[in-house]
Protein backbone atom coordinates (compact mmCIF):
# COMPACT_ATOMS: atom_id res chain seq x y z
CA UNK A 1 0.00 0.00 0.00
CA UNK A 2 1.34 3.41 -1.02
CA UNK A 3 1.38 6.03 1.74
CA UNK A 4 -0.38 9.33 1.12
CA UNK A 5 2.89 11.26 1.42
CA UNK A 6 4.60 8.97 -1.10
CA UNK A 7 1.69 9.25 -3.55
CA UNK A 8 1.66 13.04 -3.34
CA UNK A 9 5.41 13.13 -3.84
CA UNK A 10 4.89 11.11 -7.03
CA UNK A 11 2.17 13.53 -8.12
CA UNK A 12 4.59 16.44 -7.68
CA UNK A 13 7.27 14.54 -9.60
CA UNK A 14 4.85 14.15 -12.53
CA UNK A 15 3.94 17.85 -12.44
CA UNK A 16 7.59 18.92 -12.39
CA UNK A 17 8.49 16.52 -15.18
CA UNK A 18 5.68 17.39 -17.59
CA UNK A 19 4.66 20.89 -16.48
CA UNK A 20 1.01 19.88 -16.38
CA UNK A 21 -0.98 16.71 -15.57
CA UNK A 22 -4.54 15.47 -15.81
CA UNK A 23 -6.57 13.76 -13.09
CA UNK A 24 -7.33 10.84 -15.37
CA UNK A 25 -3.70 10.16 -16.31
CA UNK A 26 -2.52 10.44 -12.72
CA UNK A 27 -5.19 8.05 -11.53
CA UNK A 28 -4.09 5.49 -14.15
CA UNK A 29 -0.39 5.87 -13.39
CA UNK A 30 -0.81 5.64 -9.61
CA UNK A 31 -3.58 3.01 -9.66
CA UNK A 32 -5.98 5.02 -7.49
CA UNK A 33 -9.38 6.62 -8.02
CA UNK A 34 -9.84 9.99 -9.68
CA UNK A 35 -11.47 11.24 -6.48
CA UNK A 36 -8.28 10.41 -4.55
CA UNK A 37 -6.19 12.33 -7.09
CA UNK A 38 -8.53 15.32 -6.87
CA UNK A 39 -8.10 15.38 -3.09
CA UNK A 40 -4.32 15.18 -3.50
CA UNK A 41 -4.31 18.05 -5.99
CA UNK A 42 -6.52 20.21 -3.79
CA UNK A 43 -4.20 19.70 -0.82
CA UNK A 44 -1.04 20.34 -2.84
CA UNK A 45 -2.62 23.48 -4.33
CA UNK A 46 -3.50 24.70 -0.84
CA UNK A 47 0.17 24.26 0.08
CA UNK A 48 1.19 26.32 -2.96
CA UNK A 49 3.05 23.43 -4.56
CA UNK A 50 1.01 23.41 -7.77
CA UNK A 51 -1.86 25.27 -9.45
CA UNK A 52 -5.23 23.56 -9.94
CA UNK A 53 -6.78 23.83 -13.40
CA UNK A 54 -9.85 22.23 -14.92
CA UNK A 55 -9.21 18.48 -15.11
CA UNK A 56 -5.76 18.57 -13.56
CA UNK A 57 -2.92 20.81 -12.40
CA UNK A 58 0.08 22.80 -13.64
CA UNK A 59 3.45 23.55 -12.08
CA UNK A 60 3.60 26.80 -10.11
CA UNK A 61 5.83 29.60 -11.28
CA UNK A 62 6.97 32.66 -9.44
CA UNK A 63 5.43 35.90 -10.64
CA UNK A 64 7.73 37.63 -13.08
CA UNK A 65 8.27 41.34 -12.64
CA UNK A 66 11.16 41.88 -15.09
CA UNK A 67 10.49 42.36 -18.77
CA UNK A 68 13.05 40.71 -21.08
CA UNK A 69 14.70 42.79 -23.81
CA UNK A 70 13.64 42.27 -27.41
CA UNK A 71 16.95 40.78 -28.60
CA UNK A 72 16.71 38.14 -25.88
CA UNK A 73 13.12 37.08 -26.62
CA UNK A 74 13.75 36.71 -30.36
CA UNK A 75 16.26 33.94 -29.61
CA UNK A 76 13.78 31.86 -27.60
CA UNK A 77 11.57 29.20 -29.22
CA UNK A 78 12.36 30.48 -32.72
CA UNK A 79 10.92 27.51 -34.60
CA UNK A 80 7.69 27.69 -32.61
CA UNK A 81 7.29 31.41 -33.27
CA UNK A 82 7.87 30.96 -36.99
CA UNK A 83 5.23 28.23 -37.11
CA UNK A 84 2.81 30.43 -35.19
CA UNK A 85 3.51 33.35 -37.52
CA UNK A 86 2.75 31.28 -40.62
CA UNK A 87 -0.48 29.91 -39.13
CA UNK A 88 -1.65 33.31 -37.86
CA UNK A 89 -1.06 34.91 -41.27
CA UNK A 90 -3.81 32.70 -42.72
CA UNK A 91 -6.33 34.64 -40.60
CA UNK A 92 -5.53 37.85 -42.50
CA UNK A 93 -7.17 38.97 -45.74
CA UNK A 94 -6.15 41.84 -48.05
CA UNK A 95 -7.73 45.16 -47.14
CA UNK A 96 -8.04 44.46 -43.40
CA UNK A 97 -7.00 46.76 -40.58
CA UNK A 98 -4.71 44.70 -38.35
CA UNK A 99 -3.55 45.54 -34.83
CA UNK A 100 -0.19 44.16 -33.71
CA UNK A 101 0.99 44.50 -30.12
CA UNK A 102 4.66 44.61 -29.24
CA UNK A 103 6.61 41.36 -28.85
CA UNK A 104 8.84 38.91 -30.68
CA UNK A 105 5.99 36.61 -31.74
CA UNK A 106 3.96 39.44 -33.27
CA UNK A 107 7.16 40.69 -34.91
CA UNK A 108 7.64 37.24 -36.47
CA UNK A 109 4.03 37.40 -37.73
CA UNK A 110 4.64 40.89 -39.16
CA UNK A 111 7.35 39.44 -41.40
CA UNK A 112 4.75 37.06 -42.85
CA UNK A 113 2.27 39.90 -43.42
CA UNK A 114 4.65 42.00 -45.50
CA UNK A 115 3.37 40.22 -48.62
CA UNK A 116 -0.34 40.82 -47.95
CA UNK A 117 -1.64 43.75 -50.02
CA UNK A 118 -3.70 46.75 -48.92
CA UNK A 119 -3.32 46.33 -45.16
CA UNK A 120 -3.57 49.04 -42.54
CA UNK A 121 -1.36 48.23 -39.55
CA UNK A 122 -1.93 49.69 -36.09
CA UNK A 123 0.95 48.94 -33.74
CA UNK A 124 2.74 50.16 -30.64
CA UNK A 125 5.92 48.32 -31.64
CA UNK A 126 8.90 50.19 -33.08
CA UNK A 127 10.35 46.91 -34.41
CA UNK A 128 7.13 46.05 -36.24
CA UNK A 129 6.88 49.55 -37.69
CA UNK A 130 10.42 49.20 -39.06
CA UNK A 131 9.61 45.74 -40.46
CA UNK A 132 6.83 47.09 -42.65
CA UNK A 133 8.97 49.97 -43.91
CA UNK A 134 10.73 47.52 -46.21
CA UNK A 135 7.76 45.32 -47.06
CA UNK A 136 6.67 44.36 -50.55
CA UNK A 137 3.05 45.48 -50.14
CA UNK A 138 3.87 48.77 -48.33
CA UNK A 139 0.87 48.94 -45.98
CA UNK A 140 -0.35 52.03 -44.19
CA UNK A 141 1.29 51.93 -40.75
CA UNK A 142 -0.13 53.80 -37.75
CA UNK A 143 2.44 53.87 -34.95
CA UNK A 144 1.44 55.05 -31.50
CA UNK A 145 3.65 57.29 -29.44
CA UNK A 146 4.51 56.51 -25.85
CA UNK A 147 7.23 55.39 -23.47
CA UNK A 148 9.67 52.83 -24.85
CA UNK A 149 9.91 49.49 -23.00
CA UNK A 150 12.81 46.95 -23.00
CA UNK A 151 10.86 44.99 -25.64
CA UNK A 152 10.73 48.10 -27.88
CA UNK A 153 7.00 48.63 -27.39
CA UNK A 154 5.47 52.08 -26.86
CA UNK A 155 3.24 52.22 -23.79
CA UNK A 156 1.64 54.60 -21.33
CA UNK A 157 -0.95 57.39 -21.54
CA UNK A 158 0.19 58.73 -24.92
CA UNK A 159 -0.18 55.28 -26.49
CA UNK A 160 -3.55 54.69 -24.83
CA UNK A 161 -4.84 58.08 -26.02
CA UNK A 162 -3.73 57.35 -29.58
CA UNK A 163 -5.68 54.07 -29.59
CA UNK A 164 -8.95 55.32 -28.13
CA UNK A 165 -10.58 56.30 -31.43
CA UNK A 166 -9.15 53.56 -33.68
CA UNK A 167 -10.96 50.43 -34.89
CA UNK A 168 -9.27 47.25 -36.13
CA UNK A 169 -10.73 44.17 -37.79
CA UNK A 170 -8.36 41.86 -35.95
CA UNK A 171 -5.77 42.30 -33.21
CA UNK A 172 -2.82 39.96 -32.81
CA UNK A 173 -1.56 40.22 -29.25
CA UNK A 174 1.60 38.71 -27.83
CA UNK A 175 1.71 37.91 -24.12
CA UNK A 176 4.34 37.17 -21.49
CA UNK A 177 2.29 34.40 -19.91
CA UNK A 178 -1.11 32.73 -19.74
CA UNK A 179 -2.67 30.83 -16.86
CA UNK A 180 -6.19 29.79 -15.81
CA UNK A 181 -6.77 32.30 -13.03
CA UNK A 182 -4.36 35.06 -14.01
CA UNK A 183 -5.36 35.07 -17.69
CA UNK A 184 -3.00 36.77 -20.17
CA UNK A 185 -0.25 38.64 -18.34
CA UNK A 186 2.81 40.89 -18.67
CA UNK A 187 5.45 42.10 -16.18
CA UNK A 188 4.95 45.74 -17.29
CA UNK A 189 2.01 47.61 -15.76
CA UNK A 190 1.88 50.24 -18.48
CA UNK A 191 2.12 47.60 -21.20
CA UNK A 192 -0.88 45.83 -19.65
CA UNK A 193 -2.87 49.07 -19.82
CA UNK A 194 -1.80 49.72 -23.41
CA UNK A 195 -2.63 46.18 -24.49
CA UNK A 196 -6.08 46.53 -22.92
CA UNK A 197 -6.55 49.64 -25.07
CA UNK A 198 -5.49 47.61 -28.13
CA UNK A 199 -8.06 44.95 -27.26
CA UNK A 200 -10.74 47.64 -27.17
CA UNK A 201 -9.92 48.65 -30.76
CA UNK A 202 -10.54 45.18 -32.19
CA UNK A 203 -13.60 43.36 -33.48
CA UNK A 204 -11.71 40.08 -32.88
CA UNK A 205 -8.69 39.29 -30.73
CA UNK A 206 -6.11 36.62 -31.58
CA UNK A 207 -3.44 35.85 -28.99
CA UNK A 208 -0.19 34.48 -30.43
CA UNK A 209 1.90 32.61 -27.85
CA UNK A 210 4.14 29.55 -27.85
CA UNK A 211 3.66 26.63 -25.46
CA UNK A 212 6.23 27.92 -22.95
CA UNK A 213 3.86 30.77 -22.01
CA UNK A 214 1.38 28.33 -20.44
CA UNK A 215 1.49 28.48 -16.63
CA UNK A 216 3.72 31.56 -16.68
CA UNK A 217 2.40 34.58 -14.78
CA UNK A 218 3.56 38.17 -15.12
CA UNK A 219 2.86 40.92 -12.62
CA UNK A 220 -0.20 42.39 -14.35
CA UNK A 221 -3.20 40.81 -16.05
CA UNK A 222 -4.04 42.15 -19.51
CA UNK A 223 -7.28 40.20 -19.92
CA UNK A 224 -8.91 36.95 -18.93
CA UNK A 225 -8.48 33.94 -21.22
CA UNK A 226 -12.05 34.27 -22.52
CA UNK A 227 -11.21 37.72 -23.94
CA UNK A 228 -9.44 36.01 -26.85
CA UNK A 229 -11.48 34.84 -29.83
CA UNK A 230 -8.53 32.86 -31.19
CA UNK A 231 -5.34 31.43 -29.70
CA UNK A 232 -2.55 30.55 -32.12
CA UNK A 233 0.01 28.33 -30.40
CA UNK A 234 2.43 25.58 -31.43
CA UNK A 235 1.58 21.88 -31.34
CA UNK A 236 3.74 21.27 -28.24
CA UNK A 237 1.06 22.78 -26.00
CA UNK A 238 0.32 20.15 -23.28
CA UNK A 239 -2.95 18.24 -23.57
CA UNK A 240 -4.11 19.47 -20.18
CA UNK A 241 -3.60 23.07 -21.28
CA UNK A 242 -5.62 22.43 -24.44
CA UNK A 243 -8.50 21.08 -22.38
CA UNK A 244 -8.54 24.18 -20.18
CA UNK A 245 -8.21 26.62 -23.07
CA UNK A 246 -10.95 24.87 -25.06
CA UNK A 247 -13.41 25.84 -22.35
CA UNK A 248 -12.44 29.52 -22.57
CA UNK A 249 -11.54 30.33 -26.19
CA UNK A 250 -13.67 29.86 -29.30
CA UNK A 251 -10.91 28.83 -31.72
CA UNK A 252 -7.53 27.28 -30.99
CA UNK A 253 -5.00 26.89 -33.81
CA UNK A 254 -2.03 24.61 -33.12
CA UNK A 255 0.76 25.17 -35.63
CA UNK A 256 3.03 22.27 -36.57
CA UNK A 257 6.68 23.02 -35.76
CA UNK A 258 9.02 22.05 -38.58
Description:
By secondary structure, the chain is of the alpha/beta class. The chain contains ten helices and 15 strands. It has helices spanning about 5-20, 25-30, 35-45, 70-75, 80-90, 105-115, 125-135, 155-165, 190-200, 240-245; strands spanning about 20, 50-55, 55-60, 95-100, 120-125, 140-145, 145-150, 155, 170-175, 175-180, 185, 200-210, 220-225, 230-235, 250-255. The strands form four sheets. The protein has a seven-stranded parallel sheet with strand order 6-5-4-9-12-14-15, with helices on both faces. Strands 1-3-2 form a three-stranded antiparallel sheet, sandwiched between helices. Strand 2 (about 50-55) and strand 3 (about 55-60) form a beta hairpin. Helix 2 (about 25-30) packs across helix 3 (about 35-45), helix 6 (about 105-115) packs parallel to helix 7 and helix 8 packs parallel to helix 9 (about 190-200). The protein starts with a helix and ends with a strand. The relative contact order is 0.15.
In short:
The chain is an alpha/beta fold. The protein contains ten helices and 15 strands. The longest helix has 15 residues, at 4-18.
Topology:
Layout: H1 4-18, E1 20-22, H2 23-30, H3 34-46, E2 51-53, E3 56-58, H4 70-73, H5 78-89, E4 97-100, H6 104-113, E5 120-123, H7 126-133, E6 140-143, E7 147-148, E8 154-155, H8 157-163, E9 168-174, E10 177-179, E11 183-186, H9 189-201, E12 202-208, E13 220-223, E14 230-234, H10 239-246, E15 251-255
Parallel strand pairs: 4-5, 4-9, 5-6, 9-12, 12-14, 14-15
Antiparallel strand pairs: 1-3, 2-3, 7-8, 10-11, 11-13
Amino acid sequence: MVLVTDRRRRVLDEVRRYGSVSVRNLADRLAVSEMTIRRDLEQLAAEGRLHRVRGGAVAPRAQDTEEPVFAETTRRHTAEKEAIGRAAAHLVQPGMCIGLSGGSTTWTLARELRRVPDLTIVTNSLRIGDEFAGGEAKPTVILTGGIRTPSDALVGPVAVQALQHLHCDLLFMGVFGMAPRAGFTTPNLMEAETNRALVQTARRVAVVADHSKWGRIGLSTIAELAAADVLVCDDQLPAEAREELDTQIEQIVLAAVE
